[in-house]
Prior knowledge:
The chain is an alpha/beta fold. It folds into 2 domains: 3-187 and 317-403, Zn peptidases (Aminopeptidase), CATH 3.40.630; 189-312, Alpha-Beta Plaits, CATH 3.30.70.360. 32% of the residues lie in helices and 25% in strands. The longest helix is centred in the middle third of the chain and has 25 residues, at 212-236. Bound molecules: zinc ion. This is N-acyl-aliphatic-L-amino acid amidohydrolase.
Amino acid sequence: MTDNKQDELAIQRFVEYIQIKTVQPEPDYDSALKFLKNYAQELGLEYRTIKLDQDRHAAVLTWLSPSSTEKSILLNSHVDVVPVFEEHWIVPPFSGEIRDGKIYGRGTQDMKCVGIQYLEAIRRLKTAKYEPKRTIHCLFVPDEEIGGERGMKQLLTLDEFKDLNVGFVLDEGLASESDVFQVYYGDRACVWIEIIVKGNTGHGSRLIENTAAEKAQFLLNEMLKYRTDEKERLKKGQTADKPLQLGEITTINLTKLDGGVQINVVPDQYTLAFDCRIKPNGYDAFKQFLNDLIKRIPKNNDEEVTLVYKQDSGPLLLTDIENSSWWLDSFKRGCEEMKCKLNWTVFPAGTDSRFLRNVGYPAIGFSPMINTPVLLHDHNEYLAKDVFLHGIDIYIRLIENLTNEPKFNV
Ligand SMILES: [Zn+2]
């Protein structure tokens, strides 16, 4: 097959994948599994599914290295995408329409591109008669976009996953607006909380003592002060050789504020919801701050303030990038060969990698998209054709380096 033909085929498969509506909250996983099964057949890969529950399966497309007992590499991607506001799109969001060299569609950046790039890199390596010295698994998981509880988190508890004998994982990252690739070795911890403050009620014309609003005021002041301090730190902060980045600070946002029944009645309670994302190694200190804050709110008794955790990731482990290892050295070598400039940092939100890292698998978040606006979850999400195709070449080098000569069996 000529290079041109291969490029056309890659784009065709990408567009077909975009056209499958794996959109939350009711993703069409059945069609995606059918698509992946056919794809595996076309590429000569082993195909299997791992059942997570009645409606959910992970698909594994495997390029087996028959002679190898080395640990495998896992190329992970999620199948689901987030909802769209169709009226804001310039093309139908599940069309995969190409305009001015840009492929439009939900999932073009997050992260159907990466799933296809893995497979198209494998197609080209197979055409070139490459023989991997480690087994390669391409994993397609459901439900990342709704937290991964019934997707990756569930999968990691199953023996079928352990049987994959994984030694290293590549997963999603983010686009980069400059010519520097973003590489993620950790995710920020995530704490979603609701704080319910209660107080005395009465007529809106009076000066009631010990109101819910005064407690909400104290709480908001303290939370927003924390936010301002971190914002300042981001502005001025510097790590060893570069400015501090979003993934390296803690962010707090007030995301909901409920309370009150009528304009002349002092409410007896308010509920304040906060989305908190915590910097690496900052989890315990942040929890301590929250617990102290709850105690410090002026109140008559403890029942007047309640802290509810809606989501709590717990502390998250980082992938070790300080010490040399077969996968780290191979990854870096592959990037060097492709002349990729790298910025190593922490993912500001959450990916499935956090579950993998927390049970001991080294995982790197990397979506090879430079000179590209960050449009994940946004209207008119797109990826330029040439960026998509260049990503395939990058994965070829990465896969080669990660599977050519295993130096140590770890
Ligand atoms: Zn994603």
